[in-house]
Amino acid sequence: MSPLKIEIVSDVMCPWCVVGYKNLETALAQLHPSIRADISWHAFELNPDMPVEGQNLAEHLMQKYGQTRAQSVENRERLTQVGKQAGFDFNFDDNSLMINSFDCHRLLSWAKDQNKQTELKLALFKAHFSDKVYLNDQESLLDVVESIGLIRDDASEILVSKAYAKEVKAEQNQMRQFGITSVPTFIINDKYAINGGQAVVTFKEALEKISREL
Q1: d(Cα 150, Cα 158) in Å, to the nearest integer?
Q2: Average pLDDT for 140-158
Q3: Is the pLDDT of residue 1 over 80?
Q4: What average pLDDT score do residues 143-147 get?
Q5: What domains can you pick out in the chain, each with its CATH number?
Q6: Where are the alpha helices (H) located in the chain, listed in sequence order?
Q7: What is the C-alpha to C-alpha distance for residues 128 and 93, in angstroms, rounded to an integer?
Q8: 3-state secondary structure (DSSP) of residue 53
Q9: Which pLDDT does position 151 carry in this prediction?
Q10: Side by side, which strands form the sheet with 185-188?
């Protein structure tokens, strides 16, 4: 059977995106070899108007969602536990930032041309959520790029130019035209959609059902 085409609409700043991916990854491992997948990523900015310097994460969530500080702490603690169950370490603290992710998406678009898109996406998730790297700092962002074997100077040239900006904006517009308003969204074979950071069993059941219908 041909691999399923799975396109993941997500933002590096979205914790549920990495939870969802890790659970999808586990589901595919459990379904292998009967079900395989070709995975790619599409850009989605949670906060396209965020300034380059970013904003304190707790402050941002309180402003955007009307949370109290106690609710913000509780949500982060819950995410940390959910992350552990999925095999991912969240390391939130009072200095965690929400940043503008447009440059990350430009580099991910470039990385797709280098056949390293998923590798870079996971490295960015880890850097942001686990290692507390400020990805709005260009040198720190380039360190992440270099860590997976991509050429630092090439990435630097992209960041100081407008390279891949049109591609990212066009991709985001296309996702909006598809009616996607939240992430993560997993588009399968251009026909089916799974929304949110679902559990492993949910992914398994959905993928098995879709495979039977092919």
Answers
A1: 12
A2: 98
A3: no
A4: 98
A5: 4-213 (3.40.30.10)
A6: 15-31, 57-65, 69-86, 102-113, 117-125, 138-147, 152-159, 165-177, 200-213
A7: 12
A8: coil
A9: 98
A10: 37-43, 4-10, 185-188, 192-195
